[in-house]
Amino acid sequence: MTKVLFLVQGEGRGHLTQAISMSQLLREAGHKVVAVLVGGPQDRPVPAFFQDQINAPVEAFSSPNLVFNGAGKVDFIKTVVHHLPHVGRFLGSLKQIHTAIQRHQPDLILNFYEILSGFYNFFYRPSVPTFCIGHQYLFFHPDFKFPPQKKLDRFLVNLNTRFTAIGAKKRLALSFDALPDQPSKKLWVVSPLLRRDIRTLTVDQKAFILVYLNHPSLFSQIQKWHQQNPDVEIHCFWSKPDAPPEEKVSPNLTLHKLDGVKFLEMMSQCKALVTTAGFESVCEAMYLGKPVMVVPIHYEQACNATDTERVGGGVAASTFDLSVLMKYLPHHQPVGSNFRKWCGEGEKKWLKHFEL
Hints:
There is one protein chain. The chain is of the alpha/beta class. The protein has two domains: 3-193 and 344-352, Glycogen Phosphorylase B (Rossmann fold, 3-Layer(aba) Sandwich); 197-340, Glycogen Phosphorylase B (Rossmann fold, 3-Layer(aba) Sandwich), CATH 3.40.50.2000. 38% of the residues lie in helices and 19% in strands. The chain has helices at residues 14-28, 48-53, 76-83, 87-104, 115-124, 151-164, 219-228, 260-269, 279-287, 299-310, 323-328, 336-352; strands spanning 3-9, 32-40, 58-62, 108-112, 130-134, 170-174, 187-190, 209-212, 234-238, 246-250, 253-257, 272-275, 292-294, 314-316. A seven-stranded parallel β-sheet has the order 3-2-1-4-5-6-7, sandwiched between helices. A seven-stranded mixed β-sheet has the order 10-11-9-8-12-13-14, with helices on both faces. Helix 4 (87-104) crosses helix 5 and helix 5 (115-124) packs across helix 6 (151-164). The radius of gyration is 20 Å and the shape is globular. It starts with a strand and ends with a helix.
């Protein structure tokens, strides 16, 4: 039995759901998740759905997060300026991580794209090996196709990704499909991490469009389109901290507070998914055979959007103009069967990495 400690970047939903799926996979194989440390803004609690489903002790710590501009796009300069005064707080988080590792004595640390994990390895030099897990590590693969231009953004995303992987023994790159491993780069291509819940869902196709927003400021775009197209039924999940569980904005527009179980259930019933190009949400939609419209809000998600179109999962758009989706839907070719096969074959490959 391997004792595993998770370090999870808690912003958004993707890395949290990947950690839930990994905890399920490890437990089924006889391993134990001894603790889960979730990084994020100091005033943002760990989502209830994560604490309910991870089945391990959860501890939050303060970690850098992305800062958005008024248009809902990530502003890298503002992100850096915002966090510079809080360096002391982040050093305290490194000490908190070290204390937890000493207390739980894990055999392995799994890092779900948390940047302080890399800095922890740099400053503390732990004897415990770290494996990094994330779609972003696929950007180091020679066969990965990037969006055109934006060389500075590409540099910054890859720099951040390298920071997360400082001192890591392996970089496990989540991918929509199979690509050859690159052991010389400490890079292995693995299938997406999908929660067991998705396999038990009854898939249907109702008339509504499902939307997931990882930042409340993006809702204004959905509201504007809905006002021009009030006959289209929309269910929108968002991460607003003080939002009620459900709010009926109009007869055909309903807001839902972030809830992982409810979101999956509604995804199994929706006509299509609209999301901010987060890797995990696209994977879940593809598994359920749902077309997606992806709207990247930063370069990393632009890479996901390009990859989504490459494998036939859906269409990319620059704004939440759902007219793009409506025009695309008649031409969508299902990819669910091939994707489910890749996910099923991947589990044995995953477990081999944990044979320490």
